[in-house]
Amino acid sequence: MKFFWGLLLLVCVAYLAICVLLYVMQQNVIFFPDMPGRQLQATPRAVNLNYEDVSAKTSDGETIHGWFIPADEAQLTLLFCHGNAGNISHRLESIALFNSLGMNVLIFDYRGYGQSTGKISELGFYEDAYAIWKVLTEQKGIAAENIVLFGRSLGAAIASKLASRVNPGGVILESPFTSVPDMGAKLYPFLPVRLLSRYQLNNVAHVQVLHSPVLVVHSRDDEIIPFSHGERVYQASHDPKTFLPIRGDHNGGFLYSGRFYIEGIEAFLIKHFPAYQPVS
Could you tell me the pLDDT band of residue 104, with boundaries at 50, 70 and 90? Predict the structure, then answer.
């Protein structure tokens, strides 16, 4: 009997230690700014696009780095909030795709990513996006109704939060999760993740207060963020809203789905931006 109670105590201590470790180390579990590397690997010139470096100062003094890629006679500008691992130099295929649709693109790195300064912080990410938004609206004089906020994976939560603050012309959320606690509970069902989570990044809460048109894109084959998360984000959104189910894995679904993906985005832009003229 003494052995049983000793074993139970050992298990409880080990479980508590795992919980403490998860709480302390969760930033390293969730965010991957250095994978495959923090250095910029290339620029848009690698895909034959002109660009300009953009720098934005946040309200708490960080410097956020990005690229502005113009498109000829563009009526719309897409503000690109990228996914988790790596930096803006790992998104050249997406930049080229959106530019080919006749939109200017502004893509930026969050604090702690790429050439942006600062340490990873959820509230900080939101401030980074707002600082970049002001580059478009104040420095470049682009009207809010002509800006499309795009967020993929992690970036969806940042884009949806920004949209709740600035009321853009439209919002595209690709591969969104409902929230970090929901994802954590799926990955670690044996741990009290909802109590331990220091991050929320809650797309469902963000979209519930949006008034801009929303397009949710999600792959049925997504092996990282379940398709059901995209469905729940769509269901929580207000009209006008559109759901675009694609195929392919988490990182390559937009490429695998090809014309279906492109035509779905074009249809959304044509419907909600009368001045938009597709070029593909």
Answer: very high
Residue 227 clears pLDDT 70, i.e. is over it: yes
Catalytic residue check, 250: yes
Is the separation of the CB atoms in 63 and 57 below 8 Å?
yes
Beta-carbon contacts of 167 under 8 Å, excluding residues fewer than 6 positions away, are 144, 211, 212
Nearest to 64 by CA among 107, 28, 30: 107
Concerning whether 128 is annotated as a catalytic residue, the answer is no
Confidence band (pLDDT; 50, 70, 90) for 217?
very high
Is domain 32-272 classified as CATH 3.40.50.1260?
no
> Which residue did the predictor score with more confidence, 194 or 144?
144
Q: Is 153 a catalytic residue?
A: yes
Burial zone of 226 (CB within 10 Å; 0-12 exposed, 13-18 middle, 19+ buried): middle
The side-by-side arrangement of strands in the sheet containing 147-152 is 52-57, 63-69, 103-108, 76-81, 147-152, 170-174, 214-219, 241-246
* Candidates 116, 121, 153, 197; catalytic one: 153
The lowest-confidence range among 95-99, 145-149, 272-276 is 272-276
The answer for residues whose C-beta is within 8 angstroms of residue 274's C-beta and 6 or more apart is: none
Catalytic residue among 109, 128, 182, 222: 222
pLDDT at 184: 86
Return the sign of the alpha-carbon dihedral for residues 201, 61, 41, 35. negative
